[in-house]
Amino acid sequence: MLVLAAGRGRHALLPAATCFLIAAWAAAVALMPEAPLAWPPGGLEVLRNAFWFLLLLVLGRRVGGAQARPLLLRFALAGGTATLLAFATLSAPVAQALTTTAIGSPVVLTRLALVLLVVLLAENLYRNADDGTRWHVVLPCVALGGLAAFDVILYAHAALTHDLSPILADARAVLAAVAAPLLALGAMRDRRWRRNPPVSRQVVFHGATLLVAGAFLLAVGAAGEALRHLGADWARAAEIGLWAGTAMALVVALSARSVRSRLRRSVVDHFFAARYDYRQEWLRCVATLSAPDVAAQLRAIRAIADAADSPAGVLLLREGAEAGFHWAGSWNMPEEPVSLADDHPLILEVRGGTWIVPLSEKDAPELREAFGQLWLAVPLAHHRDGLLGLVLLAPPRAALPLDGEVFDLLRSLGREVAMFLAERRAAERLAEQQQLQDHAQRFAFVAHDVKTVASQLTLLLANAEHNIQDPEFQRDMLLTVRASATRINTLIARLRQPEGAELNTTSIEPLARLRELSARSAHPVQLEHDDRPPLRVSMAAEAFDAAVTHLLANAAEASRPGEPVRLRLQHGQQRVLVEVIDRGCGMTPEFIRDHLFRPLATGKPRGSGIGAWQARELLRRAGGELAVHSRPGEGTTMRMTLPACRDPRNDASFPAPHSAEAALP
């Protein structure tokens, strides 16, 4: 039926033979229920398990192609060995001793090894198949893997209790009847396969762990049986203690990284052509370097140490333009401020970052004295900055042969770590430059304001020689000196505030501030404003005063002596416009575009090039903007636009637009 259902008989011959052997084995067990492990039911069972294994190998070959040959060859050798040993236990002397009451450990061990290999191969085949291929292999893997897993339970129970469970033995026939239709459905499915390697290091690792642990338990069981046959009074207590100690030993062994490393080196690596799963290594490196709440130096060490299975390491880095390589961090090693000169033998031996150096007992004695036993020096080579540093690793948990594959991986990881450290160092320098730039900007603002205050005091002193006896001048002088002192104290407070801190933003009324600034100005100022209710804006009073003062000072310098500067205030809908107008020489469009708002660029003999730039920056921080309208020979209009804040006192300040409002620019 399987041959006819599959269309082409050659694709269904192996599943059909497998189902035939299952039926033959079930019939033999039914005829000889008293000795299910002897010949012929025992032999048919071994042959059945061998065909399960062979069917899964064929499926793995069709799925994985040529890339799966090394892995499948090792599986085939292991399965063939287990099958031969299982057939060897069917010899006449051994078969006579096989009963349900006295089970020989060789029989159980060989059959358990064979079905464990079937489970391992089925799991490996299923886990490594992609979505399209898995549709073809899922039914054989479930059917054969399930039958083999049930046999594992049967033989494990027999090994522990020294008796074959009749219930479990009879249940195998029911399970086989359920699994046979799954094999038939699997044979009817499409036979077009995509070739992907079914290699899974995790599955092989866990499978190998299961095999080792199972063999260890069987050995302990044999030792317990030997103690039981001694017949002494302490034999039973010794057997219980042996099992308890075995459980503790397994827990300790499985939780120890050194044991897992030795298992991977001695068993798992032999199943693969390459020692590393490079996809997993790359993902692990990215995860390590991007781990939060871990110092960058420790991340750099772990990214390389984990690939080499090293439990500790130390990082030496070149610090900027300083000569030599200095200690930058330790992981599970002492923290010692050790430095290596550029001409140190170890630095010369890495050949500019292209050579990984195994360290012997005679190499770098000062490093061994500081950090203990060292095993490997991995250079951190950057494509632009050259050799950034070294990562010194402690000996691995399990012996790791150093070959070209290991060196290539560590060299690539060293370059990746070097890029990570270089980018982090560049980001730190950029942050420092930003802080210096912010401080320089604040200092430039303060210097310009100090210049303005100094100009006011100089003008005051010049007028004091002729008007010191005038009481009105004396009052103006006191007001000017008091305002200058307040301004200087404000500037000092601004310099003392933390980096990034802003001025206290409050709700101010521009009209009131403009009236005060007009009264304090040494140059004549003509204040104009509309009759609409005054609006309030969200801006620090000091910042607003500084912006207007800078623009007034520039307008006064551009105006002829005695000609007033017009200061016009207009209230629009949800905005305030302040215009500083002069009738001076004006500016060209090229000057406005290229020089007006460039810091430290000025065309005045005693100018600083800060005023217009600072005014625009202060307005932008408050959500406003500064626009310039100027023509040579016609003067200049500096237009400040500020949004009105959502203040209850502004609610009455938004009437419907009328003709005068429509004329606003």
UniProtKB/TrEMBL annotation:
Domain Histidine kinase, first and last residues per copy: 445-646
SMART domains tied to this protein: HATPase_c (SM00387)
Highest taxon in the source lineage: Bacteria
Alphabetic keyword roster: Kinase, Membrane, Phosphoprotein, Transferase, Transmembrane, Transmembrane helix
EC number(s) stated in the UniProt entry for this protein: 2.7.13.3
Catalytic activity: ATP + protein L-histidine = ADP + protein N-phospho-L-histidine
Signal peptide feature range: none
GO molecular function: protein histidine kinase activity
Pfam families with a match to the protein in the record: HATPase_c
Stored InterPro entries: HATPase_C_sf, HATPase_dom, His_kinase_dom, Sig_transdc_His_kin-like_C, XrtA/PrsK
Membrane-spanning segments: 12-32, 38-59, 71-90, 102-125, 137-158, 164-183, 203-222, 234-256
Protein name: histidine kinase
Gene name linked to the record: prsK
